[in-house]
Design goal:
Elements: H1 9-25, H2 30-39, H3 44-56, H4 62-73, H5 79-88, H6 93-103, H7 109-121, H8 129-142, H9 147-158
Helix pairs in contact: 1-3, 2-3, 4-5, 4-6, 7-9, 8-9
Amino acid sequence: MSDVPGVDEDGRKKAKSYALRLLRTRPRTTDELRRRMMAKGYAEPLVSVIVADLAGKGFCDDAAFTRVWLRARLERLGFKRVARELKDKGIPADMIGRAWDALRGDYDEAEVVRALVAQRMGRYAGLDPEKRNRRLTDYLLRRGFTADIIYKVIPAGRGMDQNRD
């Protein structure tokens, strides 16, 4: 590791140990790692050296993190929300776009919305259809699905419990 002015070997070891502890807990983006280390009080030059070293060794890979995060989160959230989460974690929009393009063919957003609607229908069984659909729509919008996909799926959900009356 290159020399960082004003930081002794013990300070570098402590900072690197802290960074590795953070990465052991769960994968993190380089930006998350940088922010956490800065919040802990480590100097920016030291943080930059450690983050670059760990990224160079493959401990912190933003592209891999983005792919894994997208796959996991798209099982129950819409792309808009997942993209916002990734941006909050410091992932650039172009990297999110490339990962999304790679996954798009395997992802059926309408199917995810249908599954969430079916899962929620029991909670809303006693409500009138208009109120139920409004609640389902609000729920799905909060989860990051677009209005277009919601309105394509919600009409299918209207008849899902008609045999219960």
